[in-house]
Amino acid sequence: MNQYLVTAYDYTDDGALSRRMGVRPHHLDGAKELKESGNYVLGGAILNEEGNMIGSVMILQFETEEELEAWKQGEPYITQKIWETVDVKPFRVAAV
Questions:
Q1: Could you please report the per-residue DSSP string of 15-74?
Q2: Please, what's the b/e burial string for 49-75 (b: 16 or more CB within 10 A of its CB; e: otherwise)?
Q3: Closest C-alpha to 7, from 72, 73, 85, 71
Q4: 66: pLDDT strictly greater than 90
Q5: Could you tell me the domains of the chain?
Q6: pLDDT score for 80
């Protein structure tokens, strides 16, 4: 499988954190589905100095670029305007 490092930063408007918290259950449901299908390696929130979530990092794996694109099209943090920027790079988890 091809692995990817996803680094995403949230919008910074006044309602950004509230919007994130409202969409978060849907995002986590999607992450659980990814884990069940073997596409989720790890992930978590990027925090600011106050401990508030301001973005996300995920390591995902897919057989094809089409599967990666399908995930992006359905990811609630993308479709609901939580992540302002999303950077996806090829990645390989070290085998230790």
A1: THHHHHHHHHHHHHHHHHHHHHTT-EEEEEEEE-TTS-EEEEEEEEEESSHHHHHHHHHH
A2: eeeebbbbebebbbeeeebbeebeeeb
A3: 85
A4: yes
A5: 2-91 (3.30.70.1060)
A6: 95
- Give CA–CA dist 40/9, Å, rounded: 19
Look at residue 96 in the predicted model and tell me its pLDDT: 85
Q: Cα(35)–Cα(28) distance, rounded to whole angstroms? A: 10
pLDDT reported for residue 34: 97
Span 10-39, average pLDDT: 96
Contact indicator for 96, 9 with CB cutoff of 8 Å: no
The answer to whether 6 touches 60, Cβ cutoff 8 Å, is: yes
